[in-house]
Amino acid sequence: MAESGLGPDPESAAAVTVLKRAVELDSESRYAQALVCYQEGIDLLLQVLKGTKDCTKKCNLRKKISNYMDRAENIKKYLDQEKEDGKYHKQIKIEENATGFSYESLFQEYLNETVTEVWIEDPYIRQTHQGSEKQQQSRGLKEIKESLSNHGVLLEVEYSSSIHDREIRFNNGWMIKIGRGLDYFKKPQSNFSLGYCDFDLRPCHETTVDIFHNKHTKKI
């Protein structure tokens, strides 16, 4: 349990808040989120420890840090095993008009240095509200392909009349399924409104994001 007897300083208060949230998430079996909070809380406690001169308080802090580190390590082992077994599943619910869910916010956690290939399947990418007519879209994709090529990235596009699933797969084993596909943003009110360029500030349609991990994920 997160304890509040750490002191009145801001770092102590922040540590208590974060670790309290970690314990709540842990009790709800939301282990991935709990691990992040445990790690952040432990870092804050280490800062408090550095600034503590009282030997008794130092001893108590070390015990607390050790306990939290043990729990965080157990959660990490559990999540690693879930990934190994292909059972990892995290779900994010995006509410109507919610903000803060840019592509970067959703995907950055899973895009590390091991990713060399990404596969995107979206059956409605040619809908008029996601692109315009086929010819214009083809020109746009060609321009994107040329631009990516300048940065050493190869873009390959294939069309299919039988695709129904929406999913994004990385060759490090992560797979992301978005209920609405990539088209979960609402149209900005104008070219000068907040969210026109910064997608973290653009309101979203309600949808669900499911994230899985399987080290054996391969291109289909």
SSE inventory with pairings:
Layout: H1 10-27, H2 31-50, H3 55-85, E1 88-94, H4 103-107, E2 118-121, H5 134-149, E3 167-170, E4 174-178, E5 207-213
Antiparallel strand pairs: 1-5, 2-3, 3-4, 4-5
Helix pairs in contact: 1-2, 2-3
Structural features:
220 residues; alpha+beta; single chain; 5-stranded antiparallel β-sheet; elongated
The percentage of residues in β strands lies in: 5-15%
Radius of gyration: 22 Å
Q: Specify the helix fraction band.
A: 40-55%
Class based on secondary structure composition and strand pairing: alpha+beta
What is the molecular shape?
A: elongated
- Give me the side-by-side strand order of the main sheet: 1-5-4-3-2
Overall average pLDDT = 86
Beta-strand segment tally: 5
Alpha plus pi helix count: 5
Span between N and C termini?
45 Å
Topology as a string of helices (H) and strands (E): HHHEHEHEEE
Largest sheet: 5 strands, antiparallel
Residue windows where pLDDT falls under 50 for at least 5 positions: none
Organism: Daubentonia madagascariensis
Subcellular location: Late endosome membrane; Midbody
Protein name: MIT domain-containing protein 1
Membrane topology: Peripheral membrane protein
